[in-house]
Design brief:
The protein is α/β, with parallel strands linked by helices. It folds into two domains: 295 residues, no CATH class; 132 residues, GMP Synthetase, Chain A, domain 3, CATH 3.30.300. Helices cover 36% and strands 23% of the residues. Helix 1 packs across helix 6.
Length: 498
């Protein structure tokens, strides 16, 4: 046992105790964050434009600052990108995290000297919570891999620019540097196929104990390892016992993962975003992720059901309820105000506040008024594969409004690792779950406006080929699991099984 692992558990216990100090005083914690944000930003351009000096309460803030997405804040961000200081937050940002925008092309999300440490601390604390709960820190003795984007950064008028995962790569603690893989050189490879092959070569003979990344890309890494060795992951990495992930609901991929690994393992879910590190899984027994109330973010929530109303109700964390689908709104120490990140969440606990991500407010299907959301399609797929040997590699759903014949339907594109023996029964199970969850969908089926869903089998590797075809292969790129148009579906027709 190394010195690191001996001291890790007592340290983990101290940190978790400190975290629960603020987690058990959530309203006071958020009020302190709110007051600090307003005070520090009152002399910025945004603060002056919105009269921050006269804000004394959350109601004052709501009256002055509207809900907005990146396009709403873009005039201010453009000034920062051009080199101006004191625009959204004091001074200039340390970094711009570059993300893809659907309407605005590339987005430049500021990360400041105040916000950067919260990203690092939250990721660290997620691992410490796991150590404290399991009373096991042995993984720190082995090698760790974080499948991520290139750490190479560009200069944008004196501010470093890169992907969030690449920026974070510069902040690996000194005591973990010897354990960290892949090498810097390999991590800088841009082509994803080349990069994964290089990672396989570097790691295949190592004692890997922690692996992290978006499930679909880690799955590709596992498949290449198995192809190279002819062994399951548990035999290649016998001390690998937990997987850290974020960005997608893992449940549809779990069967496939465990078949590749060859044993059951633990999972730690994270909710990191360029805009802030929002939550992480703090328990292996309690559902949801601990909302980061003490990380320089003041949260607001709007019920997804009324989000598109003219004047939707905005509430702080003290007024949220269990079982409601909320759009999450951020106000941050990176200078994002009334910012709609685009995600929807649901609370699984109110003491402490824990959430689960339920989807994207813009990712839904409502071609006929059914308003199907991500949480529903994920549960339907899980219901269909539960207790079976069916493994799913990837999937997405879209409406077929103008079929060549018959009624319209929802079209499910699924890449199977192990296919159902009876596709008709499998499809019926998904459809039954959808009808049980969504009364509007049920009524449309009963009223013969829609017919039951149709499953299309995507060939193995088809989703990867699709991502290559649109220039979004690898790294932090993800397939939307549902959309209200045919943009993805029409291209996927080229990658179906014959």
């Amino acid at each position: 046992m190394s010195i690191k692992s001996v001291f890790a558990i007592p340290f983990a216990k101290r940190v978790t105790k400190r975290v629960f100090k603020w987690a058990n005083n959530p309203h006071e914690t958020q009020e302190k964050v709110f007051q600090k944000l307003i005070l520090k930003a009152k002399n910025t351009a945004f603060g002056k434009d919105h009269d921050f000096k006269n804000i004394t309460s959350y109601n004052d803030f709501k009256n002055r600052v509207k809900i907005q997405d990146y396009e709403g804040l873009r005039p201010y961000v453009d000034r920062i990108v051009a080199g101006e200081e004191d625009v959204l937050w004091k001074g200039k940002p340390l970094y711009f995290a570059k993300t893809s925008g659907t309407t605005s092309g590339a987005k430049y999300i500021p990360i400041t000297k105040d916000s950067m440490p919260t990203h690092i601390k939250a990721a660290r604390n997620a691992l410490l919570f796991y150590m404290a709960e399991k009373k096991d820190a042995s993984f720190v003795n082995g090698k760790m891999i974080f499948l991520q984007g290139s750490p190479m950064l560009e200069d944008k008028n004196g501010v470093n620019l890169g992907r969030l995962s690449g920026i974070v790569a510069h902040y690996v603690p000194q005591y973990l540097l010897k354990n960290r893989l892949p090498s810097w050189k390999t991590n800088c490879i841009e082509d994803w196929d080349t990069k994964v092959n290089a990672i396989v070569k570097e790691t295949v003979d190592e004692d890997m104990t922690l692996i992290s990344g978006i499930p679909s890309w880690v799955q590709m890494y596992f498949e290449k390892l198995i192809e190279k060795t002819g062994k399951p992951i548990k035999d290649i990495f016998p001390n690998f016992n937990f997987f850290v992930y974020g960005g997608v609901n893992f449940e549809p991929y779990k069967n496939k993962f465990e078949s590749l690994i060859g044993k059951k393992i633990d999972y730690v879910e994270l909710y990191p975003a360029s805009e802030g590190f929002i939550a992480y899984q703090d328990s292996q027994t309690e559902p949801g992720m601990l909302l980061q109330l003490n990380s320089g973010i003041f949260y607001e929530f709007i019920s997804a059901a009324e989000f598109y109303n003219e004047n939707p109700t905005r509430i702080s964390v003290k007024d949220v309820q269990l079982g409601v689908n909320y759009v999450i709104i951020l106000n941050t120490n990176a200078g994002l105000w009334g910012y709609n990140i685009g995600d929807t969440v649901e609370f699984t606990s109110l003491m402490p506040y824990r959430i689960k991500v339920t989807g994207r407010i813009k990712h839904f299907i409502s071609a006929f008024g059914e308003h199907v959301i991500g949480k529903e399609v994920e549960k339907a797929l899980n219901d269909a594969i539960k207790g079976t040997g069916i493994n799913i590699s990837e999937f997405t759903v879209a409406p077929q409004v103008n079929p060549e014949s018959g009624l319209p339907y929802h079209e499910w594109f699924i890449e199977f690792e192990n296919e159902p023996e009876n596709m008709e029964i499998f499809s019926e199970k998904i459809d039954a779950s959808m009808q049980a969850q969504n009364v509007y969908y049920l009524d449309l089926i009963a009223g013969k406006v829609l017919r039951s869903l149709v499953v299309r089998k995507v060939k193995k590797g088809g989703f990867h080929e699709y991502m290559k075809s649109i220039g979004k292969f690898g790294g932090q790129n993800k397939i939307p699991q549902l959309s209200d148009n045919r943009k993805i579906a029409d291209v996927l027709q080229n990658f179906l099984m014959n």
